[in-house]
Amino acid sequence: MNTAEIKKEITGLIDAANDLASLEEVRITALGKKGKITGLMKTLGGMEPDARKAAGQELNVLKTEISGLIETQGKMLKRQELDQRLENEKLDVTLSPRPEAQGKIHPISQTMEELITIFGDMGFSLAEGPDIEDDYHNFTALNFPPGHPAREMHDTFYLPDDPEETGEAAKKVLRTHTSSVQIRAMEHQKPPVKMICMGRTYRSDYDITHTPMFHQCEGLMIDKNTHMGHLKGCLMDFVRKYFEIDDLPVQFRPSFFPFTEPSAEMDIGCSRKDGGLKIGSGDSWLEILGCGMVHPNVIKNFGLDPDEYQGFAFGMGIERIAMLKYGIPDLRTFFEGDTRWLDHYGFDPLDRPNRAY
Ligand code: DAH
After folding, report:
1. Which CATH number fits domain 107-345: 3.40.50.970, 1.10.150.530, 3.30.930.10, 3.50.50.60?
2. Which of 12, 44, 73, 294 has the most CB atoms in a 10 Å sphere around its CB?
3. What's the confidence (pLDDT) of residue 259?
């Protein structure tokens, strides 16, 4: 029995095993039930006692040595296999997880968010009303009596009468302005009230500055001592914050709306040079919104006593102020659904209007 020879042979096989499966084969060849060393162990029984003792010791040493070598080689191969897997399954976590966001926020949504932020910080709450209005809320309650010529100023879309209602409530229109929400909001609130409302409005009109559907923002403040100074201060702060120009000049011109008295239109300063328009101090004015002190008849329709309560209201076109701030030349493009337009004028979904005030 030449254990040195056997050891050399098996050590060679162990060294040559380059994965765990072939190492296991070597183990079986050497130490398995029918393995070489196991086979030699079995021959011990037939030996003379002295020879058996010597050979037994030699074989045990060999068996221990070979087991040790297999274990060491196994550990090495396991580490090698793990290194290989780590290399193969490498993940570069510095790569962006998905393609750049493709969607854009529409300028109308962005502008509405900005309005909510600015007026919200001034303490105005947000009210809502229906797009399909009745004649009472859209006109009569706002001091447009039936047959009043001011109704003609709105190119109203009339809907068929609602058979389930009677009188003015049966006469349905697509709301021509968000002023109808003033009446709705006051039906379930008591002063002091400070609210804005935003939404779609409809008029039968179509050119570069008119679309049959557009958006308005309405504001209303009602309390016992609210006066024209509050109206001016509130709207002046608003335009300066919205256009981000601290010294933006404003002026109020007398105007007419049935639901306010006195009524005014507010202009902001601008300059017009070489066909361009720049908002800020300059030699020209730009009309931006309508406003006024709520008419006593409307206060009555709120269910309040006009000798006790007064307030101001304002209304503006959201597209108009978005066009002015973001340099969008044609109103009609807002609603064409052209993704190239949205790519250009839209806003990053992760941008949020600042709450800097
Ligand atoms: N509703 C008016 C319009 O659509 C805008 C407006 C003007 C609203 C004056 C108001 C206001 O609340 O006080 O032209």
Report:
1. 3.30.930.10
2. 294
3. 97
